[in-house]
Amino acid sequence: xxxxxxxQIGPEEExxxxxxxxxxxLAQGAQVAAFEQGFAEVCRVCEAIAVSSGTxxxxxxxxxxxxxxxxxxxxxxxxxxxxxNTILLVGATPIFVDIDPDTYNLDPEQVAHAITPRTKAIxxxxxxxxxxxxxxxxxxxxxxxxVIIEDACQAHAAAIHGxxxxxxxxxxxxxxxxxxxxxxxxxxxxxxxxxxxxxxKRIVRSARDGVCPGSYTVTxxxxxxxxxxxxx
Length: 232
Ligand SMILES: Cc1ncc(COP(=O)(O)O)c(C=O)c1O
Known about the structure:
The chain is of the alpha/beta class. The chain has a single domain (about 40-230), classed as Type I PLP-dependent aspartate aminotransferase-like (Major domain) (Aspartate Aminotransferase, domain 2). It is built from seven helices and nine strands; from the N terminus they run ααβαβαβαβαβββββα. It has helices spanning about 10-25, 30-45, 55-65, 80-90, 110-115, 135-145, 200-210, and strands at about 50, 70-75, 95, 120-125, 145-150, 160, 165, 170-175, 190-195. The strands form two sheets. It has a seven-stranded mixed beta sheet with strand order 1-9-8-5-4-2-3, with helices on both faces. α6 (about 135-145) links the parallel β4 (about 120-125) and β5. α3 (about 55-65) packs across α4 (about 80-90) and α3 (about 55-65) crosses α7 (about 200-210). It is globular and about 55 Å long.
């Protein structure tokens, strides 16, 4: 049988895990902060926020852009269930439009036809590491004042003419082991990242941590989004 993903775990990864375990700090901390900075550099965005899963990243991205009941989000039907589910989770309506048979990604023509006054966001999926047609989708979103949330869960470091996915809008990534056989595959639960514009950063960080940054005022019920330090 051909494995769909093979984690490459060597002495360096083992030492990194042991260091975290011996530090006694298994949640949030220097490793997570370093991971966030490194990943932001890879995506060439101002900030990356590590959360617990790609699903949490998509969910928080929608919250950060204040997508909610009454809003429509245009997305692809050919994806993992989390893409549509997170739109439902915030009370918005997923509008599935057909894919381009050549790329299996969102067809920009179909997206253009699906835009209504209730459309708030476009959520392209960069499927199998192949970026969606951002050259067409970004101008479309700009022309209609729409948010772009990129489901980049399968497309770490993929780029279009050198511009990385996750930097066209707000990007959500998954480090579930079959999605990315990098050093992060060493942790069974992985560690995830969400790139976001500054406006949504505070919403995401307080939702991720369950408290207001710098205080212990509980602001959110989403503390399950926290990235364990071991994951990074
Ligand atoms: C396209 C896509 N979106 C979202 C997700 C959800 O990521 P996670 O499993 O980390 O929640 C996945 C996971 O495989 C995915 O492939």
